[in-house]
Amino acid sequence: MHHFLMPVLAFLSASSIAHATSKDLHYLYMSTPDGAQSEGRSGNGILIFDIDNGHKLVRRIEIPSFKEGLRGFTANARTHRIYYSTTNRRLGCFDLETDKVLWERQYEAGCDRSAVTSDGAKVYVPTGWWYRGTNSGFLVVGAEKGDVLKRIPVGLQAHNSIVSLDGRFAYLGTETNLTVFHTSDDSVVRHIRGVGESGVFPFTIDSLNRFAYVCLGKHVGFDVVNLHTGEVPHRVLASNAPIPHRTHGAGLTPDETELWISDQDGRKLFIFDATQMPPKPKGQIELSMGGHGWVCFSLDGRFAWSHTPDIIDARMKKVIGTFQDETGKPVGSSKFIEIHLRDGKVLDVGNEFGLGRAHLARQGASR
Fold first, then answer.
1. What are the domain boundaries of the chain?
2. Are 294 and 248 in contact (CB under 8 A)?
3. CA 142, CA 120: separation in Å to the nearest integer?
4. Cα dist. 98→93, 95, 102, 307, 329 in Å?
5. 260-272: per-residue pLDDT in tens?
6. Span 24-366: which CATH code?
7. Angle at 100 between CA 97 and CA 101, to 5 degrees
């Protein structure tokens, strides 16, 4: 062997061994207590579960301010930070790589389910479903320190918000309205009125920003919103006999073939075939408890999670396990995020909303 090759081979060998022994960790970070339900609570902080190891509890991170009740939980992979909001008008920033709270700020109106931009620079903070002031809408907050950059009045009861996975748009749900913003300059793209039947409820969007699926406020079902035109071409109910209570939770599977909605009063998830328009019913899953209502999926589409302690096999459509804390008590929350780590560094993050990811997957495959 040529002597000049030996250092190169030694480097490659060491590099290969390091790569082989380095394991990607797929964790679910579940915040507790959920500010919207009394069921499933377990102390104040973050419970970390190992998705690849039967969703077993890895550890707990205590965060005292969580006792105020969590209202939102959103993350950014680039800055490896989570932004959490509480019932007590508090927004906080948590570093995933150091397990440290970097800052907490309280604001005049409130902080509901917020969303962070893909570059990690701004957090869109709804003023709260409980707030009906004339300036109800978005606080645009600097993600680095929590300074308010601007306030955007939108409509009553500003509640749920999403930043699209391509980073171009921010969406805000207010009372029977859905508003779309450009993230580049916070300008309004479209204000869509008369969606969701009554009140303000969760929604989800596909990866091409074509359609939003908005939960109904008086029945179990959803409105289909055409985001390009602002029209609402379809209202879909979960049953031929209308179920007369609200829907709270809507999620697309990552491949966008199915839409799931949550009937928390009925303790069920209803499943729809989303490969056709409007989506058609195709099944349901019984849940172990009521509560706030929610539904979301693992990034690989294997698992569905809701507001309950139930761990659901998304392909088999059945409950296969239970989230438990260190005492064996079942725990549940609707504020959770999937986090991927390697050697203590964040690789990827999920989203607390069940967002469609099919177009992003195709983009990745074409590169």
1. 24-366
2. yes
3. 9
4. 12, 6, 10, 27, 28
5. 999 999 999 999 9
6. 2.130.10.10
7. 130
